[in-house]
# Entry
Amino acid sequence: MNNTNISCQNPATIDHFIHLMAKKGGGFDMKNIEGLKTKKVEYGYLELEILTTEQHTNYSRFYIHGAFQCFLFDITSVLSFKTTDPLEDYSYAITININTTLITPLPMGKRIRVVAKIEKKTSSMAFSNCSIMDEEGNVYSTASVILRIAKPSL
# Structure
């Protein structure tokens, strides 16, 4: 099997990337993305899901923290970019702007879907629209994300 058969449009590949991010070590990422799984993946489109828990809440302990929602928008946008990019290209995306609207408080204990869709991609930038919704389709927050596309210097 050659590298072109290993697709970033494969849910197992996206889940592997999430696992690698969590394993990278310590801090906010590792603690908070346990249980984050791929629900749907297509070219330029990604849906992840997670059951919200107390570790995701704000000081009230009843509602999911807005910063955690932004964190989910960041991860989902970057990974949705990877669905448009061949693995052998080695490019990566760096979030440079997240414009978020927190529509209504998101209660703890909900299984949520985080959706990101790449709306436009150039050689140096990608633009994503995102939303967080529950299983019934109620939208709790939205975001527009701008990504800078970079390639490592080898």
Notes: The longest helix spans residues 66-82.
